[in-house]
Amino acid sequence: MLQIEDLWVEVQGKEVLKGINLHIGKGETHCLFGKNGSGKTTLLMTIMGFSGYKVRHGKIIFKGVDITHLPINERAKLGIGISFQRPPTLRGVKLKDLLQICGDDKGLGRRLAVSYGFDHFLDRDVNLGFSGGEIKKSELLQLLTQNPDLTLLDEPESGVDMENLDVIGNMIGKLLQKDIHKGREKSGLIITHTGFILNYVTADKGHVMLNGQIYCQGNPVEIFQGIQKYGYQECIKCMQCNV
Ligand SMILES: Nc1ncnc2c1ncn2[C@@H]1O[C@H](COP(=O)(O)OP(=O)(O)OP(=O)(O)O)[C@@H](O)[C@H]1O
């Protein structure tokens, strides 16, 4: 599904990603762990194609297509979706209108909003005055409507209370087809500090990013436990380190 080869990325003159290699197969969900400022968000924003993330070297291949220099809208059309760590407020854009843009089937967004008890937000400007948890629900509603083949999630749990974590987790589980083990087709890359998502999706691989490089890949639960026990720096010295 996604193949990243020796990716070097510069942001505002600073070299942030330094030779990233990553392969996410069809139907696989990967978790990305790592210290603050290590480059995780930069990787997601670069995959999605946001301006300001300058690819100095390397390739991003999605579904066999080289998307390294493709505009963001083309990447979305090809089937990539993203949920931001801190999504912007869209004044003058109603959530219902954004949901219509996200999905071809015009009724899908509303049906999903009703099913998650979120329909009273449809007539509000996107994220304007939304609480932290409401912003995350709105983001996931947009993604469920878009129904991307590769979903990029940047700390989906941040700002979400304990009860709503369950709702958010189930929405992500639906997005990534948690329950369909055979023939699962949707892929995901999830940045998480808390590891909460591991209770809601069957994650196939975990990676640890430090200082713009991926050091470790392996069982996501074991990696997360290793980080909790020994910290990032010690974790990357483990047997699973392959870079
Ligand atoms: N627009 C920008 N201008 C300047 N520096 C930037 C910009 N975007 C990212 N950086 C820098 O690049 C580095 C990596 O940032 P990034 O947001 O990718 O880290 P992260 O691993 O996602 O961190 P966190 O876990 O805190 O969200 C940081 O030092 C950050 O300050």
UniProtKB/TrEMBL annotation:
Keywords: ATP-binding, Nucleotide-binding
Residues spanning the membrane: none
Stretches assigned to the ABC transporter domain: 2-236
GO molecular function: ATP binding; ATP hydrolysis activity
SUPFAM superfamilies recorded: P-loop containing nucleoside triphosphate hydrolases (SSF52540)
Protein family membership: Belongs to the ABC transporter superfamily. Ycf16 family.
PANTHER family: ABC TRANSPORTER I FAMILY MEMBER 6, CHLOROPLASTIC
Protein name, entry field: Iron-sulfur cluster assembly ATPase protein SufC
Species, as recorded: Dissulfuribacter thermophilus
